[in-house]
């Protein structure tokens, strides 16, 4: 059984990926310091798959601890590195925290990989590296643009570090970088999902918290953009679809079918939806009318971005499948589930 180390494996995208890896027959070791996730996610993974992944409560910044972990689970076939801080606004206020967590965590892993004979790393990146693309849909050959936040810059810097390590030719290392568009939704079982800390900054958790009555109304950040209805456009990708892309990428790394030692893939649907369209889709899917008001633009927001996912479709053999209605329904089901726990 091939062994995959998943850092940040109890987090939002990490936990869904662990489920898909276990369903595909991989043995999974989760490393997470639970700074932005709950141990309940591990129980949720077990309820869905019938398998409890190995879990280590550890910070990737702890070099000695990580060294011991690599020794304990000798023979790791690949690493998926999710563990990182991801709140754009917080990164503006606490840049050092973001550079330390996101860059140093990766550096420790890249340092330890050759020491322990681990050759493959899949890195969790973001479409934020493209900024506002010159052409849409954006493909992987588009240039990266100056980041608009320290968070965005950490993704660019981490991509560059990986590129330099692979180019050094050291130890036959291989990497795949997945650039996610906007992940939303939850597992259809409602056993795992996103757990926002405090007031959500992302659109869908804010929508579901408004629908359940935790928030009075949703603020739509601007209706004067150069888009058909004036609101921003994003490519919303179902989190289970996104998780499956990791399994395709890991298979490719392990099969020895990578054309290049470093490959990039956009993981999106290829379809852009505006904020108003998303609100409407939520109302249709759930039958709930959503109170909202249009407010000023949010600083740093990109006007419109959606993926050209053809490379992932053709080369990885992966494709987004779940409809937006089904995805929003899964978010709603998850919100109802966590609301029960809030009351308990
Ligand atoms: C941002 C980051 C992205 C990161 C993601 C993870 C940038 C440019 N984008 O995505 O890289 O991976 O967060 O957290 O750094 N909106 C509202 N009202 C709200 C919340 C959002 O109208 O209450 C709108 C936003 O203006 C945006 C859309 O909804 O147009 C999506 O926003 P959000 O969910 O925060 O994601 P991004 O900003 O696209």
- Biggest sheet, in brief? 7 strands, parallel
As residue ranges, the low-confidence spans are: none
Give me the oligomer status. Answer: single chain
Strand order of the largest sheet: 3-2-1-4-5-6-11
- What's the β-strand tally? 13
Q: What is the correct CATH architecture of the largest domain?
A: 3-Layer(aba) Sandwich
CATH hierarchy class name of the largest domain: Alpha Beta
Secondary-structure-derived class: alpha/beta
Query: What coarse outline follows from CA principal-axis ratios?
Result: globular
One letter per element, helices H and strands E, the order comes to EHEHEHEHHEHEEHEEEHEEHEHH
Strand content: 15-25%
The name CATH uses for the topology of the largest domain is Rossmann fold
Count of distinct structural domains: 2
List the total number of helices.
11
Structure description:
- With 344 residues, the chain is of the alpha/beta class.
- The chain folds into 2 domains: 213 residues, NAD(P)-binding Rossmann-like Domain (Rossmann fold, 3-Layer(aba) Sandwich), CATH 3.40.50; 91 residues, Alpha-Beta Complex (UDP-galactose 4-epimerase, domain 1), CATH 3.90.25.10.
- It is 41% helix and 17% strand.
- It is built from 11 helices and 13 strands.
- The chain has a 7-stranded parallel sheet with strand order 3-2-1-4-5-6-11, sandwiched between helices. A two-stranded parallel ribbon has the order 7-10.
- Helix 3 runs parallel beside helix 5 and helix 5 runs parallel beside helix 6.
- The longest helix is centred in the first third of the chain and has 21 residues.
- The chain starts with a strand and ends with a helix.
- 47% of the residues are buried.
- Bound molecules: uridine-diphosphate-N-acetylglucosamine.
- Uridine-diphosphate-N-acetylglucosamine binds next to helix 7 and strand 8.
């Amino acid at each position: 059984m091939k062994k995959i180390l998943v850092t940040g494996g109890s987090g939002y995208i990490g936990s869904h990926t662990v489920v898909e890896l276990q369903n595909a027959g991989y043995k999974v070791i989760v490393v997470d310091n639970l700074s932005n996730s709950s141990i309940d996610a591990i129980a949720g993974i077990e309820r869905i798959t019938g398998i409890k992944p190995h879990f280590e409560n550890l910070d990737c910044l702890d070099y000695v601890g990580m060294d011991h972990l690599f020794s304990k689970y000798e023979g790791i076939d690949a690493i998926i590195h999710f563990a990182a801080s991801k709140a754009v606004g917080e990164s503006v206020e606490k840049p050092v925290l973001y550079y330390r967590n996101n860059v140093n965590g990766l550096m420790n892993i890249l340092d330890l990989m050759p020491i322990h004979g681990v050759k493959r790393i899949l890195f969790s990146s973001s479409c934020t590296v493209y900024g506002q693309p010159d052409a849409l849909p954006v493909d992987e050959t588009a240039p990266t643009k100056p980041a608009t936040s320290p968070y965005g810059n950490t993704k660019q810097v981490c991509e560059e570090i990986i590129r330099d390590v692979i180019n050094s030719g050291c130890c036959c290392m291989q990497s795949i970088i997945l650039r996610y568009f906007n992940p939303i939704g939850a597992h259809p079982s409602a056993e795992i999902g996103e757990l926002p800390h405090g007031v959500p900054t992302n659109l869908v958790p804010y929508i579901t918290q408004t629908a359940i009555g935790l928030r009075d109304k949703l603020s739509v950040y601007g209706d004067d953009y150069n888009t058909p209805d004036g609101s921003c456009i994003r490519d919303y990708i179902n989190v289970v679809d996104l998780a499956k892309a990791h399994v395709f990428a890991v298979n490719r790394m392990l099969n020895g079918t990578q054309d290049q030692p470093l490959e990039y893939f956009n993981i999106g649907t290829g379809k852009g939806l505006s904020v108003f369209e998303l609100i409407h889709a939520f109302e249709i899917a759930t039958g709930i009318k959503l109170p909202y008001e249009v407010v000023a633009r949010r600083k740093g927001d990109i006007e419109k971005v959606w993926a050209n996912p053809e490379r992932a479709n053709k080369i990885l053999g992966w494709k987004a499948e779940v409809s937006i209605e089904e995805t929003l329904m899964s978010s709603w089901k998850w919100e109802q589930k966590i609301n029960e726990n809030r009351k308990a």
